[in-house]
Amino acid sequence: MKEKGNLPSWEIQRDGRLEEMFAGIVPWYDFLNRCLSLRRDVYWRRELVQGLSLPPRPLILDLAAGTLDVSLEMLRQHSQARVAAADFSLPMLRQGQEKLNRQGQGGIFPIAGDALALPFLPATFDALTIAFGVRNLPDRPAALMEMRRVLKPGGMLAILEFIPPERGWLQKAYELYLTRLLPWVGRVFSRHAYAYAYLAESIKNFPTAGAFCRELQEAGFREVRQRRLTFGVVSLFYGEKS
Ligand SMILES: C[S@@+](CC[C@H](N)C(=O)[O-])C[C@H]1O[C@@H](n2cnc3c(N)ncnc32)[C@H](O)[C@@H]1O
């Protein structure tokens, strides 16, 4: 595996530096999301939530919730929802909590927790969302099983993730964006040497959409479907707990 900074990405995921890395970019996280995606990230999260079919007064888990943008979008679209917003980074959750305080928002409950050992009873949630989080999980099959465990039977999993284009001119343009522009802009603003280089590398290392759909099926999800957004640079994946 090619190295970026001091460690290859899989080691960063395993040795605790990933948590440290997210803590380091908190002040710039929301700003850089809007800036680097030309505000498309707001639309992507809106579409993620819109694709869910939910019962009345649903109980939702927003996993890898970060600064709570998906949780807030959930309440915008489903005011009766109750959202457990879980993340292993307390600084990210604290930044999100400040947004909740500013907006006077109830209904969202930030909780410290690791995706690989979720602090919830089995069959608790009507739906589980994870935006730009699944790519960071060191043991993806185990994490998907854990997500399945906490969903009620028939509960929906909704994933938003960067998927590298597989071929064509877009693949070349995207490669340049990922390996040159993104790490440079990220470094200039956040002054965090490897965070945005890690982002680029983790996107390149993510499986193809087809392979990821198979992983979801193997983890026990049915009705797995993918929807590409914005020329296919990100995808939504949905599945139901069978
Ligand atoms: C790129 S951010 C995405 C945040 C948010 N979902 C969004 O849409 O902006 C990834 C988040 O995943 C969290 N994360 C990474 N690995 C995790 C794990 N094993 N368990 C819980 N959270 C994790 C990080 O702390 C970070 O807040």
Can I get a quick summary?
With 242 residues, the chain is an alpha/beta fold. The protein contains 9 helices and 7 strands, in the order H-H-H-E-H-E-H-E-E-H-E-H-H-H-E-E. The chain has 2 domains: 62 residues, no CATH class; 159 residues, 3-Layer(aba) Sandwich (Rossmann fold), CATH 3.40.50.
Describe the structure.
- This protein has 242 residues and is of the alpha/beta class.
- The protein has two domains: 17-36 and 164-205, no CATH class; 39-163 and 209-242, 3-Layer(aba) Sandwich (Rossmann fold).
- It is built from nine helices and seven strands.
- It has a seven-stranded mixed beta sheet with strand order 3-2-1-4-5-7-6, with helices on both faces.
- The model is unreliable at 1-10 (pLDDT under 50).
- It binds S-adenosylmethionine.
- S-adenosylmethionine binds at residues 18, 22, 64-66, 69-70, 87-89, 92, 114-116, 131-133, 136-137.
